Amino acid sequence: MNRMGAGEWGLLIILSVLWGASFLFMGILVKELPPLTISASRLTIASLLIGILASRRPKNLPWRELLILGVLNNTIPYALILWGQRYVSSSVASIINSTSPFFTSIFAHFLTDDEKINKFSMMGISLGFSGVLAMAWDSAQGSLIGELAIITAVICYSYATVYGRRFYSMGLSPLDIAFGQLSTAAATSIPLAILERPWLAMPSQRAWVSIIGISVFSTALAYLIFFRILERAGATNANLVTLLIPVTATLLCTAFLGERLELRHIVGMCLIMTGLLIMNLRGEL
Hints:
The chain is mainly α. The protein has one domain (6-280). 74% of the residues lie in helices and 0% in strands. The protein has helices spanning 6-29, 35-54, 63-84, 90-97, 100-111, 119-136, 141-163, 174-194, 205-233, 235-238, 245-257, 263-280. Helix 2 (35-54) packs antiparallel against helix 3 and helix 2 crosses helix 9 (205-233). It is found in: Membrane. Keywords: Membrane, Transmembrane, Transmembrane helix.
């Protein structure tokens, strides 16, 4: 199992702020624009930025594999999370999102040779899923549907995290992978967004700022950092960023959106974070 050094932890903290802010941006955008339009805009702008950085690099990329990665890591989960945030708060969405390492550990156990589940992983996974059940307990029907949509999104990109490891054996850099993933995801998202007739809505200035923020910082820059961590520390460690995302997202959404968490959400977050800490300490105990 790969160990996390000071450099990897530093990148992880920066990434948690960037991805935590994405839930704030999405919470603003879902009130003004349809979900597929938001997703397509985010992916298109981010892929253009990454494309500029990658313009002088060789273009002999494995596009079929990158298309699979883009659909699983962006096209499907982005749309599901945005749709789910119509029914649950941004803070709750970020807490559900933090279950990603549990699903990643399960996929990595069966699909890799060096990231096997041990007794500490099992304990952490059990606590994590207990946290999800605590959050879903006594949920209203609409809220439960939103939570299930976000969990489905988490399963998609948890598998994509493990799937993405194969690209390093192909000699691809984090920039290559980010460009291929985001550009294919944008290409598959735009036709779907057209069905929503986005030209009928005129975003406010606040929404435009959120689109730029989520595209430039929470997508383009964030994925460059994420794939660097994945390359250095492995899939399970890379997804430990979700240990920190609920904290940054909750602080931001409380400050700017006035959101409040119910007791069951706080209990669920505590269980999930305890499970993640146990998983992170598995190599030390």
